[in-house]
Amino acid sequence: MHSDVNNPTVSSLEAFGGALEDFSPDLLLVSGLQMMDNFPFPEGMRKERLGKIREQVRVCVSGRLAIALPCLFGSK
After folding, report:
1. Which residue in 34, 29, 26 sits closest to 71, CA to CA?
2. What are the tens digits of pLDDT across the range 1-24?
3. Domains of the chain by residue range
């Protein structure tokens, strides 16, 4: 269950994409994608949002990319 609709839907994606056109970052950090898990998206919306994130990564391919993933498993 989510009480946050901004993070799972990546609501700032379009505004950020517009900023990328004018700014050439040295590093792009992608994080929080786990917030999309189990969110009740309309059919096809999750795939569409992830596709837009993928396109933004392609725009920044000359820079560095960091993907922050949460620790999903405890250490033994």
Report:
1. 34
2. 456 778 888 888 888 888 887 887
3. 6-68
